[in-house]
Design brief:
9 helices, Muramoyl-pentapeptide Carboxypeptidase, domain 2, disordered N terminus, four-stranded antiparallel sheet
Length: 234
């Protein structure tokens, strides 16, 4: 019985996912019908594959054991692709074309290795070896894009509440007083920070009045408020 595998591209590190999606798009432009079949692998899944050609029938497909986390799949930095054509999934010409595309966008291609070749395999390691990863070194974290916040900022720009969207990519808390005052004028026709906060409490835009009355708000509080204001404006 095979170990269940996860082919979900969302299981990859965000940067590797981005490159996987780019590979699919570039391949499509060149008329290549690609399917991703392996992304993150558990230790059990990797050991199951390692056993093939050793303690299980079949040809050897990997030299990396899962029990010692020696595959980049275990670290969410690798994925495998095939031709999406039944009976001809591992066509060598197809995989060679795909490999060149992968290399052109910055991926490492297993088919280009000097030793054991793994034509379906692509990885992006950030220059980290398996030894580095085992020692605790981690790939850089990629900020998650906050689509709702970005749309809210755009909406507040259109409403004349925010002048420069770039100034709110990273919030400077010193600018929040002026922002609240502008919201008060635009939404409730009142002047001043305190009156604006009071009106937003009445309108149930603010659910934690003390944070705003005592000016103890954080960057996240401000981001959440901007999204709520945008929704209030419709």
């Amino acid at each position: 019985m095979s170990i269940e595998r996860c082919d979900d591209i969302d299981q990859l590190h965000p940067k590797v996912k981005e490159l996987a999606e780019k590979l699919l798009n570039e391949a499509k432009k060149q008329g290549l019908n690609v399917k991703i079949i392996d992304t993150y692998r558990s230790k059990e899944r990797q050991d199951y594959l390692y056993a093939q050609g050793r303690t299980r029938p079949g040809a050897i497909v990997t030299n990396a054991k899962g029990s010692d986390m020696s595959s980049y799949h275990n670290w969410r930095l690798a994925f495998d692709c095939i031709q999406n054509k039944k009976g001809d999934e591992y066509n060598s010409v197809f995989l060679a074309k795909l490999g060149k595309i992968g290399q052109s966008i910055g991926l490492e291609w297993g088919g280009g290795w000097s030793g054991f070749k793994d034509a379906p395999h692509f990885q992006y390691t950030f220059g980290l070896s398996i030894k580095d990863l085992k020692s605790g070194k981690k790939p850089p974290q990629v900020p998650v894009k906050d689509v709702a916040y970005e749309k809210a900022i755009q909406n507040l720009v259109l409403e004349g509440i925010i002048g420069s969207p770039a100034a709110w990519n990273k919030i400077n808390l010193n600018n929040v007083l002026a922002l609240i005052s502008k919201i008060g004028v635009r939404l409730f026709d009142v002047n001043g920070y305190d009156l604006a906060v009071a009106k937003m409490v009445e309108a149930k835009i603010i659910s934690s009045p003390a944070i705003w009355k005592d000016k103890k708000y954080t960057e996240q509080n401000t981001r959440d408020l901007i999204v709520k204001i945008s929704s209030y404006l419709g």
